[in-house]
Amino acid sequence: MQDISKPLRSKSYSVPCELCSIGSICIPMALNNTLESVLNRKRSFAKNEILVTEGDEFQRFYIIHSGALKTYVIINGTEQINGFYLPGDIIGLDSITTHKYNNTIKALTTTLACELKYDELMALVTKSTQVRDTIFNLMSQNILNYQKMILAYSQKNAEEKLAAFICWLYTQYAKRGHTSLSIKLSMCRADIANYLGLTIETVSRILTRTQELGILSVRGKYICIKDLSALFQLAAEKI
Amino acid sequence: MQDISKPLRSKSYSVPCELCSIGSICIPMALNNTLESVLNRKRSFAKNEILVTEGDEFQRFYIIHSGALKTYVIINGTEQINGFYLPGDIIGLDSITTHKYNNTIKALTTTLACELKYDELMALVTKSTQVRDTIFNLMSQNILNYQKMILAYSQKNAEEKLAAFICWLYTQYAKRGHTSLSIKLSMCRADIANYLGLTIETVSRILTRTQELGILSVRGKYICIKDLSALFQLAAEKI
DNA sequence: CGTCGTATTGACCTTTCTCAAGTGGGGTGG
DNA sequence: CCACCCCACTTGAGAAAGGTCAATACGACG
């Protein structure tokens, strides 16, 4: 286990609290003293460290400050990746209904995450309509995202899926104010392939092809978007 | 437009209020007089009638009492189906965050749906922790369902997708107490194919093949499940 | 500077799509 | 009441996308 109060690594990208997915409720000045009891701020996890295991009792959400996580389940002995989570994202909303975690959560890189206790958050929801609206908004957004993702993954071919995936990465960072066209992938090809329902070879081939089209520049885990609008067009999404 | 207070058709399958997705908050005895102002009970829609169009201002959820709906968006001029909704399902949770409907909602058959006003529901959430927990539970369940669906549709081949789809239909009805192995599809092959990201021809071929395996018996829109456990196994899900 | 794990590339095979023709059932008009 | 028609569905043959297996290249790390 890691040191609880390990400081933020200046090298890695992180969200300022104002841009975090929980937004306004994360700002101490908005909620004064109530906040401290709800959030155990900034716990650090090492690369490949498992935060929770599928089936564990649900107690707290995780909100990523810096780094990246993946969630997965084991089906027939093989890992099936459910999602990737980046700075500002919240994990655990699906667990409210089951009272336990439905996925294993693992750190892809060194990650700093805020812990948010469920019980205490619920108490705040009743007390403050601002918190209530924030949480409803968050859950609704989550549902909308999943709808879009299902559309994407049922309708798109391999090339479009991969383009959509990179667009998603770009958008996730952009939403938090980080608009660089250079992206460092925190996951390996196998994880991407697994998540998109493709094979490693197909992912590799398509990255090469997209590079030859002048849309991307790929070098290992580093991707540079050369033509953003072409990438979005390939993903069949409106920019 | 239809007669608002058209009575429930006895022929079609419907959920009793106790099994509706909004569950306890739909039972008048639990919420007494507050309920009537929130729910405009049982409005009827004709087959192919459009309830709301993508982009319309969001005001109310729809909870299906009987019949079936589909939601879709138009991408590049073609319809892309987002989901099918059956008795007990609630539509509109994704709209909380956008304040407008993200999909067009259309009736697949004659459908009876309860309308639930958003503003009034939110007021109830603050007043009653029971309502609050019900709604959080509902949204969480929704997120969990989408997670599972994404897994399903990114990892499965055509045969598994279709089996999973029929399992889902069966399960949806079973959850509401309707455990018959005979299912009448309310959607056409084209809709199923669209939704699953397949072609009509593939859907047709797989239905035929699955029938030859003795798992299903297909006759137009009528499907009879001959071997439920084999079907779930084909869908790669635990029963 | 070698080693191990990850990524790329190539040849071949399976699945699904595409295009095209044929079938069948429900509704309408004679 | 029957025949016809239309639309939804089924079936078949060839094409394309993606998967599989195998060899090779790269790169981080000791």
Would you give an account of this structure?
The structure is a homodimer of 239-residue chains. Helix content of chain A is 38%, strand content 23%. Chain A is of the alpha+beta class and 239 residues long. The first copy, chain A, has a four-stranded antiparallel β-sheet. In chain A, strand 4 and strand 5 form a beta hairpin. The longest helix of chain A is centred in the middle third of the chain and has 27 residues. Chain A starts with 27 loop residues before the first helix and ends in a 5-residue tail after the last helix. The first copy, chain A, binds a DNA duplex (30 and 30 nucleotides) through helix 7. Chains A, B: InterPro entries: cNMP-bd_dom, cNMP-bd_dom_sf, Env_Response_Regulators, HTH_CRP, RmlC-like_jellyroll, WH-like_DNA-bd_sf, WH_DNA-bd_sf. Chains A, B: This is CRP/FNR family transcriptional regulator.
